[in-house]
Amino acid sequence: MGTRHAPPAIKPAYSHGILGKFLHLAGAQWIRDGLHTVFLIYLARQSTSDYGEFMVAFGLASIVLFLGEFGLNQPLVASLSKKFTHKGDILAQYTLLKGGIMTAGWLGVLVFVLWQDYTAGLTNLVLVISAGVGLEALASSFFVAIRVEGRQDLEARIRALAAVLGYGWGLALLIAGAAPHWIALFKLIENGVNLIGGVLLALAKTDFTGLTLKRKSLARTWATAKSGAVFVLMALAAILYNKANVYFLQGQAGPVKVAQYSATWELVDGVSILVSNLLLRSVLYPLFVRLWKNDKAEFTRLAGDCVRWLIGVSLPVMFVLYAESDRIIGTIYGGAYHEAMWM
After folding, report:
1. Between 28 and which of 20, 78, 160, 224 could a Cys-Cys bridge form, CB atoms 3.0 to 4.6 Å apart?
2. Does residue 309 form part of some domain?
3. Assessment of whether the complete model's pTM goes beyond 0.85
4. Tally of domains within the chain
């Protein structure tokens, strides 16, 4: 009798836990977005002018966030994905660099609002919101370290807690009728919790030995700044392109017109952020970087699959927003935002 050979094993196609990681982050994002939506809708229905000023502040604060975060998180993922690196040292470098960029961006916003001769109330609101949003850039460094380890579930818990505490403060003071700059402290609370939680989790749940910044690291920090300059410029161009209308409307027509434009923008941005921020940047990008270094065949297969189903999901969403935007905006924001329905 001949020896019967077992059939060759077939390598299974792994899912890499994409859906689970996405759902963890999406759950935290939905909590935050739900609270953010309640906050903005209540504010919009209370005062069109105050809503417009808050949207101007968020628009300027997003410059600080993009400068500090978007330009450096991508190379940080690649650096932390290497097998033999001093990860704590790398994380300290990037955090130091982000802190410098964030401070420069905040000072740039200060110069801009003084140049535009904004009212004292709007100036205070912009500066407080910008400082709070800027902290998210620092917190994201530690969240990137957690994502590289595949622990998006831990990030989601911290983000959910931070959103509840921050927006809880904002809603409570908004209902109580507090001044806008006191209400705006909710961003400092939210992202302060994110930063503290991110640091503690990165040290406890990863293989970092510490966040030491060695003397040689200062030279590498400068090299990182130069190599990341293209990302910073891309981010700055994108945010100026997206928010230029807000700054123009504020200067030419005042906060009421900003409110009309922002109602439409918030609807579209709320849908797109799930894909652009959560799925692409926080789940797929770290996974693609790791696969590109270790398994290019699996990278090619997964990238093709993702393109196909992303297109399939996006088309019906675009159609619904196009066809029903007038009813959606009217239901959410009320009749005072009739101009926004046609944007």
Report:
1. 160
2. no
3. no
4. 1
